[in-house]
Amino acid sequence: MFASVHSFRRCVAVALAAVVFATPAFALDTVKFMAPGSVGGGYDQTARVLGKAMVEAGTAKSATFENKGGAGGTLGLAQFANSTKGDPNALLVVGAIMVAGIEQNKPQISLKDVTPIARLFTEYNVIAVRKESPYKTLDDLIKDFKAKPTSVTFGGGSKGSIDHIGIAELASKLDVPVNKVNYVAFAGGGEVVAQALGGQIKVITGGYAELGQYIKNGQFRVLAIGAPNRVEGIDAPTLKESGYDVTIGNWRGVYGAANLTPEQRHAVIEAVVAATKSKTWQDNIQTNAWSPSILTGDDFGKFVDEEHVRLRAMLVKVGLL
Questions:
Q1: CA distance linking residue 249 with residue 208, whole number of Å
Q2: Model confidence over 251-288: pLDDT tens digits?
Q3: At what angle do helices 96-105 and 297-317 cross, to 10 degrees?
Q4: Can you tell me the distance from the alpha carbon of 233 to that of 105, in angstroms, rounded to the nearest whole number?
Q5: Which of 76, 89, 117, 69 is CA-nearest to residue 254?
Q6: Within 10 Å of residue 136's Cβ, how many Cβ atoms?
Q7: pLDDT one-digit tens code per residue, 62-89
Q8: CA 299 to CA 290: how far, in whole Å?
Q9: In degrees rounded to 5, what are phi and psi of residue 61?
Q10: What is the 3-state secondary structure (H, E, C) of the chain?
Q11: Residue 28, strand partner residues
């Protein structure tokens, strides 16, 4: 009798332990995102999708979002670094645009002052025109651009952004002087879309996720994508297959606060990576044509260091630095 009671208790204990381990432990309480750009932009979109995914995955109880744009994302970076030290619940969305912004603006606070957590995905730029545009193909556009560069207005993100660097690099491949490129910089995605749809801007460039809804409903026609290979769901040739050896893409990831303990950093990395396996995240990977490229911790930090070198050289090459 005693043995059977003892066995029963042991079985109950094992069963309870299994339930505990099967239930995700909340690595974070309320995760507080800093999106260093405008509402609806790429940083903001990444923050909101990741926040929802973390809640769905059970690695955060809830999520809040703050937006602070300007200076290529470096204003949001400074506020985040100064206000979150040691807080494991804080996450900053970063990307190649911020690295370029740091190289251009030389702010007092850089990514060295916060903690690398994870690179998430790469989003490749499309080059598109409104449906009424006379440019039916990339060759149509290139022909005009080479003949009279200043007549072709390109619209995209801030000066020195990946959008701007990409167009400048394409111009250099075509032997078009950089000072002849008529690039109009915009702080927010909504404004450049309105200008392009209104015809004030002849060509728009940006990440597919920000322009996808206008492409799907036929308002924009994609002439090319800056990916190394064709992207599923986007019916357009790559710049490379069109004969131009140019890749235009912006990776995005998240950094944590300064002064995290190794245990806290590990828990935050685990929480973010678990969220990328959720249905919400995977659905958005498909919808937004994001190319997953997970890289965590110190490996991510090393990658960002290399990006500083790469983007600084590119900014110099195209005359933006």
A1: 10
A2: 999 999 999 999 999 999 999 999 999 999 999 999 88
A3: 60
A4: 36
A5: 117
A6: 11
A7: 999 999 988 888 999 999 999 999 999 9
A8: 21
A9: -75, -35
A10: CHHHHHHHHHHHHHHHHHHHHHCCCCCEEEEEEEECCCCCCHHHHHHHHHHHHHHHHCCEEEEEEEECCCHHHHHHHHHHHHHCCCCCCEEEEEEHHHHHHHHHHCCCCCHHHCEEEEEEEEEEEEEEEECCCCCCCHHHHHHHHHHCHHHCEEEECCCCCHHHHHHHHHHHHCCCCHHHCEEEECCCHHHHHHHHHHCCCCEEEEEHHHHHHHHHCCCEEEEEECCCCCCCCCCCCECCCCCCCCCCEEEEEEEECCCCCHHHHHHHHHHHHHHCCCHHHHHHHHHCCCEEEEEEHHHHHHHHHHHHHHHHHHHHHCCCC
A11: 60
pLDDT band at 190; cut points 50, 70, 90? confident
210 vs 5, 111, 115, 129, 192, CA distance in Å? 62, 25, 27, 14, 11
Q: For residue 299, is pLDDT > 90?
A: yes
Q: What is the pTM of this model?
A: 0.83
CA 36 from chain center: how many Å?
Answer: 11
Of the listed ranges 139-143, 163-167, 189-193, the one predicted with least confidence: 189-193
Least confident of 36-50, 80-94, 193-207, 244-258: 36-50
Which among 195, 194, 193, 215 has a CA at the least distance from the CA of 287?
215
Domains parsed from the chain with CATH numbers: 26-122+249-317 (3.40.190.150), 124-225 (3.40.190.10)
In whole angstroms, what is the distance from residue 157 CA to residue 204 CA? 10
For β-strands 60-67 and 90-95, DSSP reports them as unpaired
- Average pLDDT over every residue of 150-156: 96
Which tokens belong to 246?
Answer: 């140019």
User: Which pLDDT score, from 0 to 100, does residue 22 have?
Assistant: 38
The neighbour count for residue 79, using CB atoms within 10 Å, is: 16
